[in-house]
Specification:
binds iron/sulfur cluster; binds S-adenosyl-L-homocysteine; Rossmann fold; Transcription Regulator spoIIAA; globular; 5-stranded mixed barrel; about 35% helix; binds FE3-S4 cluster; alpha/beta
């Protein structure tokens, strides 16, 4: 197809948003728009946005100001805001950011061609309808910025958990699961193109449920059976729905990676209740024990929020003690940011002073660095199978990949290339990386 116009898309937020950008790229390609990485040659600029914390929105607003400068130089340039901020702010965004021409929510991407026609004729175009059934199941994502080795596959959309602090149920709508056949076909297609790792994505993959009664354990098994050389990962699991059945399926399929991201948010029962997380500290620790029982070598990571409404010093200490008890390999750590219209914004005061939030977050980050280093040190002397992704960040003489536990492993490049499986013996580490040496080419077996 001959492309007439060029679109530049910048993406913020979670993996789901990055996956959506590929869907948007595909819809646009069907309408004669080619994606470009060079903003200067774009006829259309989209920013796929995130509303999860205030600073995520501020970053987008700053970018919009810069895009406006391009627009002044290039009349006719169309600027669109898509994703969660579009959904949260709707028309308000056009009132606030005058140069925005198109606003499209996460369930309305099929309507993009019509909306662009409107925008090209000088009208402001907006569609923020949420859907109860849109999964974009039939759209083959354009694998933008891909390393050709790992790919994201969106398996469900939306979230109905309504954690009190969280904006996602409002920006992403009702939970719905994609048909399993289309997921397996996508995984198979990727494998045939040379991909060696897929990440199954949803806000809470453990509540995946498709019409014929297939739950997440059955689905992940189907994907794992595509080929033993295809690694399968998933994100994110809500602790309340992490079943023993899933752990059993993981244990039975070595190509399902030994890595679970299980966001805890807080170690205090009082906070967990206020957050509407629907589990207690003990219950969470019970799930960690189950993971360690079925998958003794499983990597563990989490999300933590510091300074939620009414959080006391004692609550904070409970978070620190839980982190030590679990011994996470990695964590994403945030200061609580009140989001308009959420349950917490309506019911609970954002009353932990900014400096206290900052100090608690620093303590959490400091502890996690110690835990990550301790976990990496334990790996020295062990041998891992590493899937090569590309050069290391620091040197073209080194390659980097991940082990099953999701740790980054760096080693001398030899004759290996992205997509190869290589056995690496770990000889040293930092907080963020394992370093090792090749002890054999493992292509063909897992
Ligand atoms: N669905 C995923 C999380 C999606 S949001 C899950 O439930 O695990 C990613 C993380 O952002 C959350 O786990 C939480 O730690 C953080 N987060 C969400 N809302 C937040 C807020 N208002 N302030 C600070 N952090 C927030
Ligand atoms: Fe937000 Fe909770 Fe849903 Fe995760 S499970 S997206 S934190 S409401
Ligand atoms: Fe952000 Fe939306 Fe994802 S709010 S974290 S981009 S679902």
């Amino acid at each position: 197809m001959e492309y007439k116009k060029k679109i530049y898309i910048e993406t913020y937020g979670c993996q789901m948003n990055f996956s959506d950008t590929q869907i948007v790229g595909s819809i646009m390609a069907d309408h004669e728009f080619d994606t470009t990485k060079n903003i200067a040659e774009a006829d259309l600029i989209f920013v796929n946005t995130c509303s999860i914390r205030d600073n995520a929105e501020q970053r987008v607003r700053a970018r919009l100001k810069e895009f406006n400068r391009y627009k002044k130089k290039k009349p006719g340039l169309i600027i669109g805001v898509i994703g969660c901020m579009a959904e949260r702010l709707k028309e308000q965004l056009i009132e606030e950011e005058k140069m925005v021409d198109v606003i499209v929510g996460p369930d309305a991407y099929r309507d993009l061609p019509r909306l662009l026609n409107l925008a090209e004729s000088g009208q402001k175009a907006i569609n923020v309808m949420l859907s109860a059934d849109e999964t974009y199941a039939d759209i083959d994502p354009v694998r933008l910025e891909s390393n050709g080795v790992s790919a994201l596959i969106s398996i469900m959309r939306g979230c109905e958990n309504f954690c009190s602090y969280c904006v996602v149920p409002y920006t992403r709508g009702k939970e719905r699961s994609r048909d399993p056949e289309t997921i397996v076909n996508e995984a198979r297609g990727l494998f045939e193109k040379g991909y060696r790792e897929v990440t199954l994505l949803g806000q809470n993959v453990n509540s995946y449920k498709s019409k014929p009664g297939i739950g997440f354990p059955e689905l992940i098994k189907m994907v794992a059976l595509v080929n033993p050389l295809l690694r399968v990962r998933f994100a994110t699991s809500h602790p309340k729905d992490l079943s023993d059945e899933l752990l059993k399926v993981m244990a039975a399929h070595p190509n399902i990676c030994r890595s679970i991201h299980l966001p805890v948010q807080s170690g205090s029962d009082a906070m967990l209740k206020r957050m509407n997380r629907k589990y207690t500290r003990d219950w969470y620790l019970g799930r960690i024990s189950a993971i360690k029982q079925y998958l003794p070598d499983c990597g563990l990571s989490t999300d933590i929020i510091a300074g939620f409404s009414d959080e006391t010093e004692e609550d904070h200490q409970k978070t620190l003690s839980l982190m030590t008890q679990v011994g996470y390999d990695y964590a994403f750590m945030f200061k609580y940011s009140e989001r308009p219209d959420t349950l917490a914004a309506k019911k609970y005061k954002d009353n932990v002073p900014e400096d206290v939030k900052g100090r608690r977050l620093q303590e959490i980050i400091y502890l996690q660095q110690k835990l990550s280093l301790a976990s990496n040190k334990k790996d020295i002397g062990k041998t891992f199978e590493v899937l090569v992704e590309g050069f290391s960040k620091k040197s073209k003489e080194e390659l980097a990949g991940r082990n099953s536990q999701n740790k980054v492993v760096v080693f001398p490049k030899g004759d290996f290339k992205p997509g190869d499986y290589v056995n690496i013996k770990i000889v040293s580490c930092t907080t963020a990386t394992l370093k090792g040496e090749v002890i054999g080419d493992n292509a063909g077996k897992l």
